[in-house]
Amino acid sequence: MLSRLNRMVDGQDFGRSMRCGVKCGNGLLTIAIAVPDEGAAISVSPLVGFTISKREIPLAVDRNRVKRRLRHLMRERLDRLPSGSKVVVLARSRASSASYTCLAKAVDELLGRAIEKLGDK
């Protein structure tokens, strides 16, 4: 489970991350990472939020399973995220039928690409 300190709960943070952040995606997931501006107050721990829509994954059982898997995967990868960053993980319809290892590979690939893009900015 992702600790309370690392959970994104503010809707404005979700919107800002998706609008202003660096995005990378594939058929399973889309990951958006936003880092604070220079001089802004930086929280030490990164925040992670998840978006799994009914339109993409209609069955609640499948949505909850995907969310649990993604929470666990992101908890293991918090040390890779820049401090103060806000990350949104958006699950696509194929994520419901993907295995845990397939989701893990997708998360690793997308986080790597997104963090690389942040470095290029």
Can you tell me about this structure?
The longest helix is centred in the last third of the chain and has 21 residues, at 100-120. This protein has a single domain (4-120), classed as Ribosomal Protein S5, domain 2, CATH 3.30.230. The mean pLDDT is 90. Helix content is 40%, strand content 17%. The protein is globular, with a radius of gyration of 14 Å. It contains three helices and four strands, in the order αβββαβα. The protein has 121 residues and is an alpha+beta fold.
Question: Which helices and strands occur, and which strands form pairs?
Answer:
Layout: H1 11-20, E1 22-25, E2 29-34, E3 47-51, H2 60-76, E4 86-91, H3 100-120
Parallel strand pairs: 3-4
Antiparallel strand pairs: 1-2, 2-4
EC number: 3.1.26.5
Keywords: Endonuclease, Hydrolase, Nuclease, RNA-binding, tRNA processing
GO cellular component, one term: ribonuclease P complex
Short descriptors:
four-stranded mixed β-sheet; endonuclease; alpha+beta; 40% helix; single chain; ribonuclease P activity; Ribosomal Protein S5, domain 2; 3 helices; nuclease; 4 strands; 121 residues
Number of domains: 1
Major sheet: 4 strands, mixed
CATH fold call: Ribosomal Protein S5, domain 2
Q: Rg, please?
A: 14 Å
The computed structural class is: alpha+beta
Please give a quick description of this structure.
This protein is an alpha+beta fold. It has one domain: Ribosomal Protein S5, domain 2 (2-Layer Sandwich), CATH 3.30.230. 40% of the residues lie in helices and 17% in strands.
